[in-house]
Design goal:
single chain, mainly alpha, Growth Hormone, Chain: A, transmembrane, cell membrane, Major facilitator family transporter, transmembrane transporter activity
């Protein structure tokens, strides 16, 4: 199978989609969950938030974990957690057991991005890594699109626990396929264990280019997850659309981004020396797409704004993840670099929604200016990355 990297990547991508399905399966059936478990809206919101908390706790140690176990063992472990979490969800009969099961499911969510980037750079050492990384960045959007269409009818036909059973079976199948088709790590794991987590992380903390990419990715995540939450509210509360129209527009946000992850990867592969400029362009366009959110005129303009913001956010995110492995001096540090960038990514997810919703309570204009400012912060971070990269090239 060493000569079939795209087949292995296809299996990996299915794994990412499955983890996304596991994360989002409760969203279409949240009303039913609330009714069956007698939950308030704030209590049920924790069933989603607990995923992100798992990610924050595990993001930084992720590089050390993959360094010690190797990507295959960690991938198998993540899907073992996914299976366990969904099994606990099936047998959960009260809120706290269900919440605990969601925490276990969140462990794969915390580490799968990093594992994917490490494996992609292993399978595509010379060409194709940019395209593969771009495609890899779309698994969450693909999972969202599928989840919103299959889990509600599945629960209606098979009962409330049917989405958990479906996800468990899919995860079990992938665990078997990974064990058979993905090769074990060939490096000397014992030698790696002699180097401490602090020793590995120290050069990254001194790498200002990694910091700029991490800040840019955190800014992107802040804006992305804020809009995921506020889009229905924007279209109902500010533009006074019907709920059905608002939900339709919000659903387009995930759909539109998928092809642009591929486009970003293709461009980064096709023009490797212009990767930072392509990334900067994506962040500039993301900022320009965000700012007109309160000045739209008519349904066509609503769709256009959702399209532009979705496309540019996906391109910005994918471009950053292509650049991250190129900012370290050895393959062994790739996992640590991705972990560090993901740490700020998850921080952006956590703080984005509550801060923006608080700003909306002040005014929509305040929220809009905040989101535009965060986009601008990401843009400035990439601009600084370009300056530092040019300086490094001149000194080498």
């Amino acid at each position: 199978m060493k000569q079939k990297p795209w087949f292995k990547f296809f299996l990996l991508y299915l794994g990412g989609v499955t983890i996304s399905l596991s994360q989002l399966k409760i969203v279409p059936i949240l009303t039913t969950i609330n009714r069956n478990f007698h939950l308030s809206l704030s209590a049920s919101a924790w069933l989603m938030s607990i995923f992100t908390f798992s990610a924050v706790f595990l993001a930084l140690p992720g590089g050390s974990i993959i360094d010690k176990l190797g990507p295959k063992k960690l991938l198998l472990g993540l899907f073992g957690c996914l299976i366990l979490g969904n099994f606990l969800g099936i047998i959960a009969h009260n809120y706290f057991w269900l919440l605990f099961s969601r925490f276990i499911e969140g462990i794969p969510f915390a580490l799968i991005i990093m594992v994917g980037i490490v494996l992609i750079n292993k399978w595509f050492p010379e060409t194709g890594s940019g395209l593969a990384t771009g495609i890899w960045g779309t698994f969450s959007a693909a999972g969202s699109l599928i989840a919103m269409n299959i889990f509600q009818p599945l629960a209606q036909k098979g009962g409330l626990k049917a989405p958990w059973i479906f996800t468990l079976c899919l995860a079990l199948l992938l665990l078997i396929l990974y064990a058979y088709f993905i090769e074990s790590d060939s490096t000397n794991i014992q030698a790696k264990q002699k180097i401490s987590f602090h020793q590995q992380l120290q050069p990254l903390l001194k790498n200002t280019r990694i910091w700029t990419l991490a800040l840019a990715q955190g800014a992107m995540a802040f804006v992305l997850y804020a809009f995921i939450t506020i889009y229905p509210l924007l279209f109902t509360s500010f533009y006074h659309l019907a709920n059905s129209q608002a939900n339709f527009l919000a659903s387009l946000f995930g759909l539109f981004g998928v092809p642009f992850g591929l486009l970003a990867g293709y461009l980064m592969d096709k023009f490797p020396h212009h990767g930072p400029v392509i990334t900067l362009t994506a962040f500039i366009l993301m900022t320009l797409s965000c700012l007109p959110m309160l000045n739209l005129q008519g349904f066509a303009s609503y769709v256009l704004q959702v399209f532009c913001l979705s496309a540019t956010i996906m391109m910005a995110s994918s471009c950053v993840m292509v650049l991250v492995p190129k900012t370290v001096n050895s393959n062994q540090l790739v996992g640590y670099a991705v972990s560090f960038v993901n740490f700020l990514y998850y921080i952006g997810i956590i703080i984005g929604t509550p801060i923006v919703t608080k700003m909306i309570e002040i005014s929509w204009l305040t929220a809009c200016l905040l989101l535009g400012g965060v986009c601008l912060l990401g843009t400035i971070s990439i601009f600084i990355f370009i300056i530092l990269t040019k300086r490094k090239e001149l000194n080498s």
